[in-house]
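step: validate -> pass
step: tokenize input -> pass
step: predict -> running
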Amino acid sequence: MNNVMPVAYRGMVATPHYLASGVGSSILQQGGNAFDAAIAISAALSVVYPHMTGLGGDSFFLLFDAKQGALKGLNGTGRSGANMSPEWFTRQGFTMIPQRGVHSVVTVPGMVDSWWQVWSSHGRLSWSQLLEPAIQYAEQGVPVSRDLERWIYKDQELLLAQEALARTFMPQGLPMKMGDKLRQPELAATLRAVSLEGRDAFYKGELMHRMVEAMNKDGGGLTESDFQAHHSDWVTPISTSYRGSTLVQMPPNSQGFSALQMMNMLELIELSEIPRSSADFYHLMSEVIKKAFRDRDAYLTDPDFADIPLETLLSKEHAQELYDEIQKSSPLGEVYLSKAMGQDTAYAAVIDEEGNAVSFIQSLYFDFGSAYVAGDTGIIMQNRGSFFSLNPSEVNVLAPDKRTFHTLMPGMVLREGKPYLLLGTQGGEGQPQTTISLLTGVLDYGCTIQEAINLPRWVYGRTWGENSDTFKIENRGLEMTLRELEHRGHSVETLLPWDPIVGQSQGIMIHKDGSYSGAADPRGDGLAIGW
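step: predict -> pass
step: emit ->
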């Protein structure tokens, strides 16, 4: 599958939906900076990609300020309500947090506040100007995309179960198809309120009252005080070195450190000497992933509630210890049972003429999140908090005012202190795996960012409903490789050549001559637009 990779000098936008990319490019051409464009893209994605993201979800932003030469992160994820505890659920007869419905809405959505924080600190255009494209798309309608059609068809029963979702996505009880016009008037009114009143509309105003009232009526546990107390946090990104480049991720509660651990292990060998399509390559990836996930699952939660020894976990010495374990173990694939987790996310990247860059990601967690709309607001609430455990012996056990283990992880690569790559992907447990596929594709195998995105990908782990881990691999003439992996003890699941299950990635590469090349994933609906 061939993609045209745009190259430009004044700016580049790459998102998982072509309309959102157009919004970001338009903002840049109106004189906005990369931070403005990121907010406008994020808002637009909430409308055109409602199965993946929305105002009821969370976000992370990595921002590079070219004038200051400074990189910082914004954690825009929400905390559990003050009443949320294992006892709150067990009193109602639950043995685990439900995955869908109002009871899966455990955490306050953080995305709207993250927009406000980015705009307040770095924005150039007016707040209302950035939200207007999203409002227009919600009011006037957008064509259902290929990916949205696929998820509506898959989730018909789920969508029919709530009137608001059925009315929007299943008119006359039938799933909308690609090209049908999707109108979301209630969401448009909500966005208009946020445009007029700022972030306080969502966390303090009449809109917030309506959301909480609806959830409480349906048995939910979030309160007005929970929304009023919410705030995003500016954080220092974490990093490691890799063959002369600096790899950057968000700190916990993001799982980003697991990808850095994987790259630390891979730096110990000459990866470029291992053919990318060989069984040796895929076997090595699976074993590196298992070691990093063992650490991730043991430690990852809200760092305000647990000691996460990042310095040790990201050290080169620890990487050597983990790699030595791989070398000493059986040549057969090691068994590791991972936790099943959601994988539905939207990642985007933007850079402007001045060199300001934003790598950001947002999500409702599952497809259509909790599958619950709060009253007449048009907001699909996330079910991110359903990943909390009710078991007090687990590190990610639910507690009041706590952030959960988060799969979201926008990435960046620096050279000489400046952005070289902006990259990220959807995919839940697949996010760190696809990240290392992209990174090694560029840094070890000499790919362009588009070529790296196009490489055959894999996902090791399990999804909901699976009882054991499988090694899912896109098959593009890899029959002999897949058979060899099975002989090595891997439970291999053969995927389609371009399978959407591996997620959709986007990326931007910054070249020495000052040009930018952008890339979107052919597995999705994305587009890269240069200016």
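step: describe -> The radius of gyration is 22 Å.
step: cleanup -> pass
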